[in-house]
Amino acid sequence: MRPDLRIEPVPFDHPDAVALRAAQRAELTARYGTPDSEPGPAPTAADTTVFLLARDAGGDAVGCGALRALGGGVGEVKRMYVVPARRRTGVAGVVLAALEAEAGRRGWTVLKLETGTEQPDAMAFYERHGYRRIPNFGHYAASELSVCYERALVPDAMNAAAIPLPWSRLGRPARRSPGAGPAAGHAHGPRKAGPALPAGGSAELA
């Protein structure tokens, strides 16, 4: 648990959520070289099940993540992002743990996600956290730059991780080591290889 972080659900159009998504989109553009094209529909307020913010001890929003229901007990992790100054400090792991716990509360049994070939940092992060690579699914099936993952959720583990609302502090169990996480979430973003970001500019953008 990180005592300096607080996880809270907010509306999709909350100003801090909008600002983090805009920063994420800018990084995707820098990483892939195109401003718009996505291999699948971008999440909206209508189809986002929950949007979580991570706040530091001063109340600043330092990360985010969202869930979108795919049906049949399956959900998709979306819009994972951590501000550059807080990368490699475990924030991404805390956000992912919170999303997994929320999925467990909803009775979901599988989480899927999509990232991109230009984001090896994101792929390594998800693999460290128990996600396995799968064939590209849904809207990403024909995307040559998409890389997809999934993880089966274990009900007992999810129940143990769950913290009732109102949200306060949530950390990943000690067996999960913090690391350089999705600095910017899954790459449902530009799908054209472009210039790499500067060293340390992790851009796991969703």
Automatic annotation (TrEMBL):
Keywords: Acyltransferase, Transferase. Pfam families: Acetyltransf_1. Gene3D superfamilies: 3.40.630.30. Residues 173-206 are annotated as: Disordered. Residues 5-154 form the N-acetyltransferase domain. Residues 176-196 have a biased composition (Low complexity). One of its GO terms (molecular function) is acyltransferase activity, transferring groups other than amino-acyl groups. This is Acetyltransferase (GNAT) family protein.
